[in-house]
Hints:
Shape: globular
Largest sheet: 3 strands, antiparallel
Strand content: 5-15%
Radius of gyration: 26 Å
Distance between the termini: 54 Å
CATH class of the domain at 37-275: Mainly Alpha
CATH topology of the domain at 37-275: Glycosyltransferase
Strand order of the largest sheet: 5-6-7
Helix content: 40-55%
Number of helices: 18
Amino acid sequence: FRERVRAMFYHAYEHYLESAFPYDELRPLTCDGQDTWGSFSLTLIDALDTLLILGNVSEFQRVVSVLQEGVDFDIDVNASVFETNIRVVGGLLSAHLLSKKAGVEVEVGWPCSGPLLRMAEEAARKLLPAFQTPTGMPYGTVNLLHGVNPGETPVTCTAGIGTFIVEFATLSHLTGDPVFEDVARKALKALWKNRSDIGLVGNHIDVITAKWVAQDAGIGAGVDSYFEYLVKGAILLQDKELMSMFLEYNKAIKNYTKFDDWYLWVQMYKGTVSMPVFQSLEAYWPGLQSLIGDVDNAMRTFLNYYTVWKQFGGLPEFYNIPQGYTVDKREGYPLRPELIESAMYLYRATRDPTVLELGRDAVESIEKISKVDCGFATIKDLRDHRLDNRMESFFLAETVKYLYLLFDPDNFIHNDGSVFDVVVTPYGECVLNAGGYVFNTEAHPIDPAALHCCRKRKEEQWEVEDLMREFYSPKKNKKFTLKRAADYGEGESAKDPEDASSEKGGEKRSSKKSSHSLLSCPTQSFNSKLAVLGQVFLDDT
Length: 541
């Protein structure tokens, strides 16, 4: 099955390159391409880390250089803030962190610098104007050249507000610029502050007035990845506050929306049922439950969803639970990954063979129903298997990736920490690729250890730079003496009047420094050696 999934990937990927690149997506029925989310060659960015998971380092390296040359974010395009973040920023960050593993020649200072990181930062900066609202909750759409359009609707879905912390916190930790994590946290907290008295959030909110426009509460479309990012943000950042927010929501969700291991839609203020419907997007929930250790409940809900799959050979967008059938105009299956994603998490947690059976069924039905000469087509109607002329980029980013990982227990993504790489950065050594990857909601894996490789605060960086500058600046006498030695407890005191100016500048910068010093001196005096976070520089370096 693993090899069949690999063949599925290449059938779709090669036809995208042949018929659709540089457009965003492949149109598999007409064998051509179309731009859908902003003209970024999106399928290429989305498929990049999947290439490495399948072990194709040479194509990964080729695509990295293609993207560096070909992708431009200075374009007059109205882009979805949410989609650009999860697909473009997430895809570039993940590829940046995996590039050394893929044999790309990384620059000095990686993972704290690099061309893909600079591209991710540039894309994220284009999204920042959307967050300039009275509530801190972002607009849903931004023009990449001009910012938020005048007359832009202030109504955004909950997921479009609460799905930034994974990518933006990673960016802040890697680049040292706190603005990204700050706006993502502010948006998360604004949603939390505006929850109803019974602890639920609605579907759409006005980001200017903080009034709920759509008051349906549930775990599916419009809300889904907000809950997902509270859990994943808590894991990635080891943040108890985010986890306690999720656990509070989880209580309210169980109290008001859960019936017989199904989750319905309810009115957010009263808790009365508004739609007894299961949406295919909700199928991520068992995977999320398994991440917080609630495996029994996860498995029961997963089995409910799996019965729907068996009924149709896919998950219809909407499924009426009491009637046990599809909902009018919502009968399609665009090859979504959510049930397969949950299967991957649950198989890691339980090794239950039933979960593998879903993987088998998914491979069989996707091959049988949606495979065409030029790729895999969205299923327009699961009742008669009519197809639509679209292959979404998430098919290669998520669906194929989760299927492959379900059938590949030895993949490096499943690493339990027994093997790892040690990387030397300007801030010392750090451990990477030890496992524990956190997938963003587009299945782009982020290595949580990377967040500890780069110093977050610029003041600390300045201290390192001051020392380096002092050490390398030409002196009349070769004897090196450490300025501000008293700050750090050891070393000779400053005697060289030439250095008085740089000393003052250095003191100014380091006045904000944290209570414990970043730098500590070795025992020998500094006329022989300088150590910065454990790296020793000799006089003749």
